[in-house]
């Protein structure tokens, strides 16, 4: 089980967590970041870096947001024909530019 980013990250794309991640597994949607559960090594380097405390440790997080993070990679997102999967790091993909339906329904801005 990987670290999870919850709804406190919506409209907060600071990026300190990304810089701290040694395996580049934190991806940027349109308004929120997502941790790839297939690439996360559970090191916890991102946890203290989040300015809004949106990251939760494995087994301590909300299952709704754990599912949402996993779906960002496992299901085709709106406007995309295929699932993102495990591309091997966020640096090469850049901003994905779309969020999951759950995040879109809760967008603050």
UniProtKB/TrEMBL annotation:
Domain of life: Bacteria
Domain called 4Fe-4S ferredoxin-type: residue spans: 31-60
Taxonomic classification: Bacteria, Bacillati, Actinomycetota, Actinomycetes, Streptosporangiales
PANTHER family: FERREDOXIN (PTHR42859:SF2), OXIDOREDUCTASE (PTHR42859)
Transport keyword on record: no
Keywords annotated in UniProt: 4Fe-4S, Iron, Iron-sulfur, Metal-binding
A Pfam family: Fer4
Protein name from the UniProt record: Indolepyruvate ferredoxin oxidoreductase subunit alpha
């Amino acid at each position: 089980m990987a670290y999870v980013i919850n709804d406190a990250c919506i409209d907060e794309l600071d990026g300190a967590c990304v810089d701290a991640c040694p395996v580049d597994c934190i991806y940027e949607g349109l308004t929120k970041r997502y941790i790839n559960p297939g690439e996360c090594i559970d090191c916890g380097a991102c946890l203290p870096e989040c300015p809004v405390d949106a990251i939760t440790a494995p087994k301590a997080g909300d299952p709704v947001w754990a599912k949402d993070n996993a779906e960002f990679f496992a299901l085709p997102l709106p406007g995309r024909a295929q699932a993102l999967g495990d591309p091997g790091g966020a640096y090469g993909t850049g901003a994905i530019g779309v969020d999951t339906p759950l995040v879109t329904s809760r967008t603050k801005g």
